[in-house]
Amino acid sequence: MCGRYTLADPNRVAEQMLRDFGVIIAAEAPRYNVAPSQVVSIIHANERGELVTQEMRWGLVPFWDTAEKPKIAPINVRSEEAFGKPMFRQCLQHRRALFPADGFFEWQAAAHPGGKTPFRIGLAEGAPFVIAGIYETATTLRPSPTCALLTTAPNSLISRIHNRMPVIMEAAAARRWLRPGPISEAEYAGFCVSFPAEAMAAHPVSTLVNNVRNNGPELIVPWQSG
């Protein structure tokens, strides 16, 4: 799964999103530990097919769940299973989205004394990127729209750390992903592929990232034992 990500250089992320998608993301302080249930900015197409940014809560509440406290709100969706699941079908056909980021975290089991080792992972050159996602709109009973990102099988780099990775997209594929209208299962499968390992990099970081209250640059500094 992908349970945390970063917007460590929000100005660079904003510049990249403007260049690739023509959208403006409001300037904000760096976020070194974006976590589930927090409000995040995503990109999607509006009713006129124009790309826009919108703040949403990370954790997808299905349209049919009108409870005050929803029982389920997945932050990740397994892309291989989503197309055939009623819970996600309408979102995949009509409410596709992108999560801007410049890194994400995964935890490698049994490598760190006393627990798992967190790794920060991103593009090799440190450039911002986007992760494919879906969203549900707000309702009178759910005042905030909600969202979840897609995951897929890991590439050779990530497989040494974790058994899943987010669906990272190049800009051209991401623009096609956001085109309004339904997509076929074959087209959908073509989007949900593992990003090339040779274009990515990973390094271990401090277990400070385990605590969602921590949000400082020390969370992304390479960690060394001893």
Amino- and carboxy-terminal Cα gap: 29 Å
CATH superfamily assignment? SOS response associated peptidase-like
Q: Let me know the average pLDDT.
A: 92
**Strand numbers in spatial order across the main sheet:** 2-1-7-8-13
For the structure shown, list the relevant keywords.
5-stranded antiparallel β-sheet, 226 residues, hypothetical protein yedk fold, globular, alpha+beta
Topology:
Blueprint lengths: L3 E4 L2 H12 L9 E4 L4 E7 L5 E8 L17 E3 H4 L3 H9 L1 E6 L1 E10 L2 E9 L5 E8 L9 E7 L12 E2 L1 E2 L1 H7 L7 H7 L8 E5 L22
Parallel strand pairs: 4-10, 5-10
Antiparallel strand pairs: 1-2, 1-7, 3-4, 3-6, 6-9, 7-8, 8-13, 9-10, 9-12, 10-11
What can you see in these coordinates?
The protein is of the alpha+beta class. The protein has one domain: SOS response associated peptidase-like (hypothetical protein yedk fold), CATH 3.90.1680. 17% of the residues lie in helices and 33% in strands. It is built from five helices and 13 strands. The chain has a five-stranded antiparallel β-sheet with strand order 2-1-7-8-13, with no helix packed on it. Strands 3-4-10-9-6 form a five-stranded mixed beta barrel. The model has no long low-confidence stretch (mean pLDDT 92).
Write a compact overview of the structure shown.
Helices cover 17% and strands 33% of the residues. The chain has five helices and 13 strands. The mean pLDDT is 92.
